[in-house]
Structure formats: C-alpha cells, structure tokens
Design brief:
By secondary structure, this protein is mostly helical. The chain has seven helices and two strands. It has a two-stranded antiparallel sheet with strand order 1-2. Helix 2 packs across helix 5 and helix 5 crosses helix 6. The N and C termini lie far apart (41 Å).
Length: 145
Amino acid sequence: MEEQERLEGLKSAHIREMQNRNVRVSTRIEDFLEIIVELEDIHGEARVSDIASNLAISRPTVVRMLGKMAKEGWIEKIPYRPVKLCPKGRQHAEWMRERHGILFSFLRHLGIDETTAHHETEGIEHHLSESTVKTIQNLIQRLQQ
C-alpha cells in the first residue's frame, strides 16, 4: 500500500504543478527581479551589464529577458538606459525578499550554517507556495517566543 500512496502523491503533485504553472511567476523572471531590486536599492539603477554580471549570463541573454519582462509589465525598459521596476515588479521582488528571509531564518533555526542556508534558500524558495512560506513564518515566530 505504501508504494501506491507514494505513486498517488506523485501524481497529485504533478497535477498541482501543471495547474499552478500558468499562474506562478517563472523562476527565471524571479531571478531577474531579485537582482534588479538589489541593484536599484544599492546603486539607484539596474544596468544590463550589471544584471548580466550578477546572474553570470551574457548581455544579449539579459536584453532578451528584459524585453519579455517589459511586455509582461514587470519593468520599464528604454533602449540604452537602466531598467526600472514597475510597481508590479517591485511588489513581487519585495515579497521574494521577505520569502528569502523567512526561509533563511528557518534553515538557520535548523542549525544550517549561514553560507549553506543562503544557497539552499535559493534552491527552494521558488518552489514553495505562499501558504507554505506563511506557515514556516508562523513556526519561526513560535520558536522565537
């Protein structure tokens, strides 16, 4: 029976993933939003070369993705100028920053070292639902009391 339950669990997870795929922001867009918000907050602007450098990808790849993000309303893009987050992009980037902090704190509570906790957070943060992250946040608050 245990194998059948695992199989049903895998099927259920796959179905849920396929249903959520259309409403969830892609991991790649979230990676770009994370870098852009940090560059804006640190340097006041996010240039293509800085985005490329921080994501360790080519400038043409960045330009293509920024075009897609502009069409979807995440950023404002003027040729040869730094990009700017639109309100939609800023709001999502701020939620991602909060989510990262929650998951990082959770891993640190588990005794994971700081460097590993940051690395592991990057690996899992894009795949957890908002309700799961909120539940983890509530657990952290209980642990801190």
